Each structure stands twice: as structure tokens, then as C-alpha cells.
């Protein structure tokens, strides 16, 4: 496929000009932010005036914004305009206390839809495609975010929403779906329902592309999804606080995600010192919205760990790429002094063909110390209740995990479909130590 662009003039802007554009947009963002109760106080506290901002490096003079700031200023503390101008809100799935809410005016919704359209276009999606959105609709941004983006691109869109696999398959086959969006953890289950119904998505659908995101997943998981569905799976990064999907997306080369830097200012900092890390090193991603009017967010600490890939991409887009998300700093757990990210466990499990797609890590405190149990579902084709055979495989997996995380967990292989399922993002860790 030749290189082509949704907005060639922006997507291929030479970096020097892109940085100039960012600085210009940043000045406007700061002037707007000043209108909100929250940022006017932040600026006053440090004696900062938006007109003091000259180059993108000046951003370091500003403090970070955290999820706690958004929660504490819920629901309107960061609003820069009249409530009459708001046309939508979304919020994160906070389980206790206030969630972080995001408010959008008409411009913000158009800008967001445009970024999702740009992202989908970069994968090769065109208006002739038929797009099925298997993501939850409602407050979760993956539903409406992709819906409006795909409509802007001109695709016929099927707002199937999450779950109900039999209906997903029927819609996919009846309407000839060519591309679809889902959290990666759902696709293994959808595939199982295809097989239960005597169907093979490789032969019995017209799928060409899947967009997978909203939760951390490994390259091994992507490979599995591609094999199960016989099509390409593109990594999609987004978060509610930054609109939702359409912040970062892989292009047709599937060479990690371009962050749309004309609309998001990207920093990677050391999560401890909060100083920038040298380019290419892993740290916490910090993002500033450059194109949001109703509720700009400055230097937002995403908690997501990644690194910048500065080398130009073959596609010709000048927006830099970020590496697959390694995990969230708050997903990391410590067991017997070892720092572990769930994705490290996933990478090992997904390399083993006998293991299916779902797993659960349970941490417990016992009088003998903390324990870690890794339960993994067996693949239906390899299902066995031959105990010695299972035991050998469990030992092998425990050894491989211990090489990776430097701690030997208990491993239990369980029958296909036996672990609890969620409709949205998968829950991979149950930490019972926290009381
Ligand atoms: P939400 O605001 O509920 O959409 O959640 C946003 C969070 O989901 C991000 O901060 C990431 O931790 C995670 N996330 C979103 N997209 C990806 C992705 N492609 N890979 C890994 N994690 C992701
Ligand atoms: Zn590219």
C-alpha cells in the first residue's frame, strides 16, 4: 500500500515546523486554561502568566496535573467556558469517590472524531470499509469515540457494543464487516464462539483489520489475535482524560504507535524524580492537550510507562511513535522484593500454545509470606485432565515465569472458560494482600 494521509499537510509537517505549531497552540491552550478555576489558581500560585510561554521547553515551568486533581475538581473545576457550550461528557470508571470527568464543546468533539478518522485512515481504512465497534458505549470513550471517528471517515458503522458474541458474529457476516474495534481480551472469547458454531473467522468473515487497545497487551497477544482472525491487528492508545481513543495509533506498518503531536504534547519523565528521561528510555508518559477548548489538561501524568521511538517511520508521518505500553506504574506489584508487571506474565503465557487467552494472577498474604498464584486457562485443543501431564506443564511454566520475574509463582492450569470474565477491560490481578 502506498503512503497516503488523512491530513497530509499536518501529518508530514517537518519536525521544526511541528514544534513551532505546538508552541503556538500551547500559548492558546494556556490562555484558555487560565479561564478555569483550577488552572487560574495553579498559575497564580507559581506566578506564571501564559504570555511568558515562548518555546515548548517552557512547559517544564508548569506543574503536573494528576488524576487526583481531576477528581478533586470534579465536575466543572477545569471548565474554561460556559456550561451552555458543553455538548458531551465522559468519565473514567472510578470505583470509589469521584471519577475524572472530561467535558467537550462542539470543537472538541469534531477534533476528537478527526483524530480517530486520521488514525483509522493510517491503517489503510477507507470510506468503503464496514466498521463494527465491539466496544462498550456510554461513559466509556471507546464506544462513541470510534463511532464518530468512523463516521467522519465515511465508513458504514455498526455500533454493536460489547458482548453478545453470537450477535457480533451474525452482524459481521450479514453486513460483511471489514474492520472492527475491541479490547484485546475479548477477541479470544469471540474466537471461541466462532469455533463453537462451526465457523472460522479466517474463512467465514471479510475482516481485514482489527483495532485493539484500551488495555495493556503483549506482542504475543497481538500475534495470536492476528492468527485467530487471519487479519492485521493495530494497536490503539487512548485515555478518557485525553478525549479517549485517537491519541496514538499504529500506521499501516504496525511499527508501534504514532502520537498525534499536533494535538498532544508528549513528554516522558522519570516517575520518581519527574525529570525528563533521555530520549528512547522508558518512563512515564505525560501529555498536554493542544487542541481542546472546553477542558484543556496540562502535563497530565498518565501513569503509563513507555518510551519514545524517535527514528522516522517508513510511512512518512513526522509524529513520533511510542513503544507498546509496558504497563501502568500503578499496575506494578511487588512480591518478595521483585517488581512485576502483569504484562511480563502474559508474554510468557502467550508463547505457550497449550495456554488459552485468559489468565488471572492472585496475590495473598500468608503467615509464610506473600504468595502468587497464576491461573491460566488451557486451550480447548490441548485440554487434558491427565494429572501428570498437567503437572509437567505447570512446572515448565513456573520455571519460565521465574526466569522472567525472578520469583517462582504457583501455576495452575484450569479448564477452558473457567476463569471469571468481564465485559470491558480484563481484570488480570487480584491482590488480596491489601486488606
Ligand atoms: P480509559 O480512560 O478507561 O480509556 O483508560 C485509559 C488507560 O487504558 C490508559 O491510561 C492505559 O493504561 C490503558 N490503555 C489504553 N490503550 C492502551 C493500549 N493500546 N495499550 C496499553 N494500555 C492501554
Ligand atoms: Zn508510520
Defining key terms:
435 residues, alpha/beta, Rossmann fold, GMP Synthetase, Chain A, domain 3, nine-stranded mixed β-sheet, 21 strands, 25% strand, binds adenosine monophosphate
Major sheet: 9 strands, mixed
The backbone outline, from C-alpha atoms, is: globular
The helix count comes to: 12
User: How far is the N terminus from the C terminus?
Assistant: 54 Å
Low-confidence stretches: none
Strand order of the largest sheet: 4-3-5-6-7-8-9-14-13
- In the CATH hierarchy, what is the class of the largest domain? Alpha Beta
Ions and ligands: adenosine monophosphate, zinc ion
Q: How many E strands?
A: 21
| Beta-strand percent range | 15-25%
**CA-based gyration radius:** 22 Å
Average the pLDDT over all residues and give the rounded result: 96
Q: What's the CATH topology label of the largest domain?
A: Rossmann fold
Overall structural domain count: 2
Share of helix among residues?
25-40%
Question: What is the architecture of the largest domain at the second tier of CATH?
Answer: 3-Layer(aba) Sandwich
Please, what is the CATH homologous superfamily of the largest domain? Answer: ANL, N-terminal domain
| Alpha-beta content class | alpha/beta
Question: How would you concisely characterize the structure shown here?
Answer:
By secondary structure, the chain is α/β, with parallel strands linked by helices. The chain is 31% helix and 25% strand.
Amino acid at each position: 500500500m502506498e503512503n497516503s494521509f488523512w491530513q497530509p499537510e499536518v501529518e508530514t509537517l517537518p519536525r521544526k515546523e511541528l514544534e513551532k505549531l505546538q508552541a503556538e497552540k500551547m500559548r492558546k491552550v494556556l490562555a484558555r486554561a487560565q479561564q478555569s478555576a483550577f488552572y487560574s489558581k495553579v498559575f497564580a500560585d507559581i506566578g506564571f502568566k501564559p504570555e511568558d510561554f515562548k518555546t515548548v521547553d517552557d512547559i517544564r515551568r508548569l506543574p503536573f496535573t494528576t488524576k487526583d486533581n481531576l477528581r478533586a475538581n470534579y465536575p466543572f473545576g477545569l471548565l474554561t467556558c460556559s456550561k451552555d457550550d458543553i455538548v458531551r461528557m465522559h468519565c473514567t470508571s472510578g470505583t470509589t469517590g469521584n471519577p475524572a470527568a472530561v467535558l467537550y464543546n462542539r470543537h472538541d468533539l469534531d477534533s476528537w472524531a478527526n483524530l480517530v478518522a486520521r488514525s483509522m485512515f493510517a491503517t489503510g481504512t477507507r470510506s468503503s470499509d464496514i466498521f463494527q465497534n465491539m466496544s462498550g458505549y456510554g461513559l466509556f470513550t471507546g464506544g462513541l469515540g470510534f463511532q464518530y471517528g468512523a463516521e467522519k471517515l465515511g465508513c458504514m458503522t455498526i455500533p454493536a457494543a460489547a458482548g453478545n458474541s453470537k450477535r457480533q458474529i451474525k452482524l459481521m457476516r450479514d453486513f460483511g464487516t471489514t474492520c472492527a474495534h475491541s479490547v484485546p481480551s475479548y477477541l479470544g472469547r469471540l474466537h471461541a464462539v466462532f469455533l463453537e458454531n462451526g465457523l472460522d473467522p479466517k474463512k467465514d468473515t471479510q475482516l481485514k483489520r482489527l483495532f485493539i487497545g484500551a488495555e495493556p497487551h503483549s506482542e504475543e497477544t497481538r500475534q495470536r489475535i492476528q492468527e485467530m482472525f487471519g487479519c492485521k491487528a493495530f494497536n490503539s492508545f487512548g485515555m478518557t482524560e485525553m478525549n479517549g481513543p485517537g491519541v496514538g495509533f499504529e500506521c499501516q506498518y504496525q511499527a508501534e504507535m504514532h502520537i498525534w503531536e499536533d494535538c498532544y504534547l508528549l513528554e516522558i519523565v522519570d516517575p520518581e524524580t519527574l525529570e525528563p528521561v533521555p530520549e528512547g528510555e522508558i518512563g512515564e508518559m505525560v501529555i498536554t492537550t493542544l487542541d481542546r477548548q472546553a477542558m484543556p489538561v496540562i502535563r497530565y501524568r498518565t501513569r503509563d510507562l513507555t518510551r519514545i521511538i524517535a527514528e522516522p517511520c517508513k510511512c512518512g508521518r513526522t509524529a513520533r511513535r511510542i513503544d507498546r505500553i509496558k504497563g501502568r506504574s500503578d499496575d506494578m506489584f511487588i512480591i518478595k522484593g521483585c517488581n512485576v508487571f502483569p504484562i511480563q506474565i502474559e508474554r510468557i503465557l502467550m508463547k505457550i500454545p497449550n495456554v488459552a487467552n485468559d489468565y488471572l494472577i492472585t496475590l495473598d498474604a500468608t503467615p509464610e509470606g506473600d504468595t502468587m498464584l497464576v491461573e491460566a486457562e488451557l486451550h480447548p485443543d490441548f485440554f487434558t485432565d491427565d494429572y501428570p501431564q498437567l503437572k509437567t506443564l505447570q512446572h515448565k511454566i513456573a520455571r519460565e515465569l521465574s526466569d522472567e520475574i525472578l520469583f517462582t509463582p504457583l501455576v495452575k492450569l484450569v479448564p477452558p472458560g473457567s476463569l471469571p470474565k468481564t465485559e470491558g477491560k480484563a481484570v488480570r490481578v487480584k491482590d488480596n494482600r491489601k486488606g
